[in-house]
Design goal:
Elements lengths: L1 E5 L21 E5 L12 H11 L5 E5 L1 H15 L6 E5 L13 H13 L1 H11 L7 H11 L7 H13 L10 E6 L12 E4 L6 H4 L1 H12 L4
Parallel strand pairs: 1-2, 1-3, 3-4, 4-5, 5-6
Helix pairs in contact: 3-4, 3-6
Protein backbone atom coordinates (compact mmCIF):
# COMPACT_ATOMS: atom_id res chain seq x y z
CA UNK A 1 0.00 0.00 0.00
CA UNK A 2 1.36 3.38 -1.00
CA UNK A 3 -0.08 6.52 0.57
CA UNK A 4 0.94 10.08 -0.26
CA UNK A 5 -0.03 12.74 2.29
CA UNK A 6 -0.67 16.31 1.11
CA UNK A 7 -0.81 19.14 3.67
CA UNK A 8 -3.08 22.18 3.72
CA UNK A 9 -2.92 25.96 4.09
CA UNK A 10 -0.36 27.47 6.43
CA UNK A 11 1.30 24.14 7.31
CA UNK A 12 3.76 21.86 5.54
CA UNK A 13 4.51 18.13 5.61
CA UNK A 14 5.55 18.27 9.27
CA UNK A 15 1.83 18.34 10.12
CA UNK A 16 1.79 14.55 9.57
CA UNK A 17 4.45 13.69 12.18
CA UNK A 18 2.02 12.35 14.78
CA UNK A 19 0.08 10.27 12.25
CA UNK A 20 2.94 8.50 10.50
CA UNK A 21 3.91 6.09 13.33
CA UNK A 22 0.23 5.11 13.79
CA UNK A 23 -0.11 3.80 10.23
CA UNK A 24 0.84 0.20 9.34
CA UNK A 25 4.60 -0.18 9.26
CA UNK A 26 4.49 -2.04 5.94
CA UNK A 27 2.75 0.83 4.15
CA UNK A 28 4.93 2.95 1.92
CA UNK A 29 4.36 6.52 3.09
CA UNK A 30 5.49 9.80 1.61
CA UNK A 31 4.65 13.43 2.37
CA UNK A 32 4.29 15.91 -0.45
CA UNK A 33 5.24 19.58 -0.11
CA UNK A 34 3.12 21.96 -2.16
CA UNK A 35 5.15 24.51 -4.16
CA UNK A 36 6.35 27.35 -1.98
CA UNK A 37 6.09 25.38 1.27
CA UNK A 38 8.86 23.97 3.43
CA UNK A 39 11.62 25.67 1.47
CA UNK A 40 10.44 24.46 -1.95
CA UNK A 41 10.35 26.82 -4.92
CA UNK A 42 7.23 28.82 -5.69
CA UNK A 43 5.71 27.99 -9.07
CA UNK A 44 3.59 29.97 -11.49
CA UNK A 45 0.10 28.48 -12.06
CA UNK A 46 1.05 27.06 -15.44
CA UNK A 47 4.00 25.21 -13.86
CA UNK A 48 1.96 23.24 -11.34
CA UNK A 49 0.69 20.50 -13.67
CA UNK A 50 4.12 19.61 -15.17
CA UNK A 51 5.55 19.52 -11.64
CA UNK A 52 2.67 17.30 -10.50
CA UNK A 53 2.89 14.87 -13.40
CA UNK A 54 6.63 14.46 -12.89
CA UNK A 55 6.22 13.07 -9.37
CA UNK A 56 2.78 11.44 -9.65
CA UNK A 57 2.62 7.85 -8.33
CA UNK A 58 -0.13 6.04 -10.20
CA UNK A 59 0.07 3.00 -7.89
CA UNK A 60 -0.61 5.10 -4.78
CA UNK A 61 -3.53 6.46 -2.83
CA UNK A 62 -3.44 10.18 -2.09
CA UNK A 63 -4.76 11.96 0.99
CA UNK A 64 -5.25 15.72 0.88
CA UNK A 65 -5.98 17.73 4.01
CA UNK A 66 -7.96 21.00 3.96
CA UNK A 67 -6.71 23.19 1.08
CA UNK A 68 -4.53 20.24 0.09
CA UNK A 69 -7.70 18.29 -0.71
CA UNK A 70 -8.86 21.00 -3.11
CA UNK A 71 -5.47 21.12 -4.80
CA UNK A 72 -5.40 17.34 -4.95
CA UNK A 73 -8.65 16.94 -6.83
CA UNK A 74 -7.90 19.76 -9.26
CA UNK A 75 -4.58 18.16 -10.14
CA UNK A 76 -6.06 14.67 -10.32
CA UNK A 77 -8.66 15.87 -12.82
CA UNK A 78 -5.91 17.41 -14.93
CA UNK A 79 -3.88 14.19 -14.63
CA UNK A 80 -6.80 12.10 -15.90
CA UNK A 81 -6.99 14.32 -18.96
CA UNK A 82 -3.39 13.25 -19.58
CA UNK A 83 -4.25 9.56 -19.16
CA UNK A 84 -2.89 9.20 -15.62
CA UNK A 85 -4.99 7.93 -12.69
CA UNK A 86 -4.08 6.97 -9.14
CA UNK A 87 -5.64 4.19 -7.06
CA UNK A 88 -7.80 6.45 -4.91
CA UNK A 89 -8.20 9.81 -3.20
CA UNK A 90 -9.14 10.77 0.34
CA UNK A 91 -10.15 14.30 1.25
CA UNK A 92 -9.61 15.11 4.92
CA UNK A 93 -11.24 18.12 6.60
CA UNK A 94 -12.56 19.49 3.31
CA UNK A 95 -16.00 19.22 1.75
CA UNK A 96 -16.67 19.81 -1.94
CA UNK A 97 -16.04 23.47 -1.22
CA UNK A 98 -14.98 25.43 1.83
CA UNK A 99 -17.88 27.86 2.12
CA UNK A 100 -21.13 25.96 2.81
CA UNK A 101 -24.22 26.58 4.95
CA UNK A 102 -23.48 25.43 8.47
CA UNK A 103 -19.73 25.80 8.06
CA UNK A 104 -17.40 28.69 7.32
CA UNK A 105 -19.32 31.59 5.76
CA UNK A 106 -18.02 33.84 3.00
CA UNK A 107 -17.87 37.00 5.19
CA UNK A 108 -15.65 35.14 7.68
CA UNK A 109 -13.26 34.05 4.94
CA UNK A 110 -13.22 37.54 3.42
CA UNK A 111 -12.57 39.12 6.81
CA UNK A 112 -9.73 36.70 7.50
CA UNK A 113 -8.16 37.35 4.07
CA UNK A 114 -8.29 41.09 4.73
CA UNK A 115 -6.69 40.61 8.15
CA UNK A 116 -3.96 38.51 6.55
CA UNK A 117 -3.23 41.26 4.03
CA UNK A 118 -2.79 43.76 6.89
CA UNK A 119 -0.90 41.58 9.37
CA UNK A 120 0.07 38.23 7.85
CA UNK A 121 1.95 36.78 10.82
CA UNK A 122 -0.76 37.64 13.35
CA UNK A 123 -3.48 36.31 11.03
CA UNK A 124 -1.59 33.06 10.43
CA UNK A 125 -1.21 32.53 14.18
CA UNK A 126 -4.92 33.27 14.64
CA UNK A 127 -5.77 30.63 12.03
CA UNK A 128 -3.58 28.08 13.81
CA UNK A 129 -5.72 28.53 16.93
CA UNK A 130 -8.99 28.87 15.01
CA UNK A 131 -8.71 25.49 13.30
CA UNK A 132 -8.20 23.78 16.68
CA UNK A 133 -11.44 24.98 18.31
CA UNK A 134 -13.23 21.68 17.74
CA UNK A 135 -10.46 19.47 19.11
CA UNK A 136 -11.02 17.69 22.42
CA UNK A 137 -7.45 18.52 23.51
CA UNK A 138 -7.08 21.87 21.78
CA UNK A 139 -4.40 23.22 24.13
CA UNK A 140 -2.22 20.15 23.61
CA UNK A 141 -2.65 20.48 19.84
CA UNK A 142 -1.71 24.16 20.03
CA UNK A 143 1.50 23.26 21.85
CA UNK A 144 2.29 20.74 19.11
CA UNK A 145 1.74 23.37 16.42
CA UNK A 146 3.96 25.85 18.23
CA UNK A 147 6.77 23.30 18.31
CA UNK A 148 6.30 22.42 14.65
CA UNK A 149 5.82 25.95 13.38
CA UNK A 150 7.54 28.79 15.24
CA UNK A 151 7.15 30.68 11.95
CA UNK A 152 4.99 30.15 8.84
CA UNK A 153 6.45 27.49 6.52
CA UNK A 154 5.69 29.54 3.39
CA UNK A 155 6.03 33.09 2.14
CA UNK A 156 3.33 35.73 2.40
CA UNK A 157 2.83 35.47 -1.37
CA UNK A 158 2.24 31.70 -1.25
CA UNK A 159 -0.13 31.99 1.70
CA UNK A 160 -2.09 34.85 0.12
CA UNK A 161 -2.58 32.82 -3.06
CA UNK A 162 -3.75 29.91 -0.94
CA UNK A 163 -6.50 32.04 0.56
CA UNK A 164 -7.66 32.98 -2.93
CA UNK A 165 -7.68 29.29 -3.87
CA UNK A 166 -9.67 28.39 -0.74
CA UNK A 167 -12.35 30.87 -1.76
CA UNK A 168 -12.51 29.87 -5.42
CA UNK A 169 -11.80 26.15 -5.82
CA UNK A 170 -14.67 23.66 -5.96
CA UNK A 171 -14.69 19.88 -6.09
CA UNK A 172 -16.12 18.27 -9.21
CA UNK A 173 -17.79 14.91 -9.78
CA UNK A 174 -16.13 11.84 -8.34
CA UNK A 175 -12.88 10.79 -9.92
CA UNK A 176 -13.33 7.11 -9.12
CA UNK A 177 -15.18 4.73 -6.83
CA UNK A 178 -12.34 4.91 -4.30
CA UNK A 179 -12.87 8.54 -3.34
CA UNK A 180 -13.66 9.40 0.27
CA UNK A 181 -14.46 12.53 2.27
CA UNK A 182 -13.45 12.42 5.94
CA UNK A 183 -14.67 15.26 8.16
CA UNK A 184 -14.44 15.95 11.86
CA UNK A 185 -17.77 15.94 13.67
CA UNK A 186 -16.58 19.01 15.61
CA UNK A 187 -14.76 20.84 12.81
CA UNK A 188 -15.45 24.60 13.21
CA UNK A 189 -14.74 25.20 9.52
CA UNK A 190 -16.85 22.46 7.95
CA UNK A 191 -20.58 21.92 7.51
CA UNK A 192 -22.14 18.94 9.27
CA UNK A 193 -24.59 16.36 7.94
CA UNK A 194 -23.19 16.09 4.40
CA UNK A 195 -24.43 12.80 2.96
CA UNK A 196 -21.28 12.10 0.97
CA UNK A 197 -18.90 12.40 3.95
CA UNK A 198 -17.77 10.12 6.76
CA UNK A 199 -17.59 11.91 10.10
CA UNK A 200 -14.96 11.20 12.74
CA UNK A 201 -16.45 11.58 16.25
CA UNK A 202 -14.96 14.02 18.77
CA UNK A 203 -12.61 15.41 16.13
CA UNK A 204 -12.16 18.91 14.70
CA UNK A 205 -10.19 20.16 11.70
CA UNK A 206 -6.87 18.51 12.65
CA UNK A 207 -7.39 14.82 13.47
CA UNK A 208 -3.78 14.09 12.49
CA UNK A 209 -2.80 16.13 15.57
CA UNK A 210 -5.63 15.47 18.01
CA UNK A 211 -6.61 11.86 17.22
CA UNK A 212 -3.88 10.29 15.05
CA UNK A 213 -4.69 6.76 16.18
CA UNK A 214 -8.39 7.12 15.35
CA UNK A 215 -7.55 8.62 11.97
CA UNK A 216 -5.09 5.82 11.22
CA UNK A 217 -7.70 3.22 12.09
CA UNK A 218 -10.20 4.86 9.75
CA UNK A 219 -7.66 4.95 6.92
CA UNK A 220 -6.92 1.24 7.39
CA UNK A 221 -10.67 0.49 7.37
CA UNK A 222 -11.12 2.38 4.10
CA UNK A 223 -7.99 1.30 2.26
CA UNK A 224 -7.37 -2.15 3.72
CA UNK A 225 -4.38 -3.32 5.71
CA UNK A 226 -2.41 -4.63 2.75
CA UNK A 227 1.20 -4.38 1.71
Amino acid sequence: MKLVLCHGWGMDSAIWQALLPELPSHWQLSCLQWPGYGGTAELAPEQWLPWWLEQLQEDAHYLGWSLGALYLQQLMLASEAKGKRVRGCLYLSMAKQLVLPGGLCQPELTQFSQAFARQPLAAWRHFCRWQLRGETHAQQCWQQLQRLYPQPPASQTTLAQGLIDLAQLRMQSALCSREFFLLGAQDPLMAQGLDYALYLPEVGHCPQLSQPQQLAQQLVALLGDTA
